[in-house]
Amino acid sequence: MIQKLLILSSLLLLACCATSPTGRHQLLLVSEETAIAASKEAYLSTVSEMDKNGRIDNGAAVNARIRMITGRLVTEAIRMRPDTAEWEWSIIVIDDPESVNAWSMAGGRMAIYTGLLQQIKPTNDELAQIMGHEISHALARHTAEKMSLQMATSVGVAAVGVATDNDEIALTGAALAAALAVSLPNSRSAEKEADRMGIELAAKAGYDPYAAVSLWEKMGSLPGSQIPQFLSTHPNPQNRLQRLNRLAAKMMDHYQPDETHTVFLLQ
Fold it and tell me: Which of 76, 126, 134, 145 is labelled catalytic?
């Protein structure tokens, strides 16, 4: 009986294998469509709760900057994956000076924290690397991948609520899994993939690829407890700097800073 279950499980895993935009094999027990629908529910609940608690930064200057840079990146993301033109691309700025973080969900729903902007003080080129990295997580189906891993390893999604950024959001089922996926770190393979795709998106959108290197140097100067979650699974900092330098050199052919770049209008 156990042998039959193992064979059945193996066949299921094989049937649910997919390939990411960079050619990496992925386990997708959860479809991207399911992940997008669940992410929408989780995102809207989170935004509503944060807005009620006054944690959304609606400052005109900061939002205009974030939306302009992210909009240029999304234009390139759609060129990379034309089907994502139908996504409800959106971003919010979360007012949390202590949190040096940013995240994305399936379907192009993103957030960035004021702590990242205030403590890192990124240039526009460096900010493009951050948002390109997050957009790449969405393009590469990393939310669905993490939800699938939860399912495959029986990580509990049976709880009736999840704590997100100190706000209790009442979620259940797939929406809870999507919200939990944001709080869980990506694998090293997924992070490397987002690095590679993100630098390409930024270069094509007119942002200096070598800003990925200077950004990481700034991140590395933060106290250990402040290292952003989206960088927590990366390998040795020096190795990463060398890898980013190699990636940046390869992307210089895509870098056209003087061209006019289309800004996608985010929701």
Answer: 134
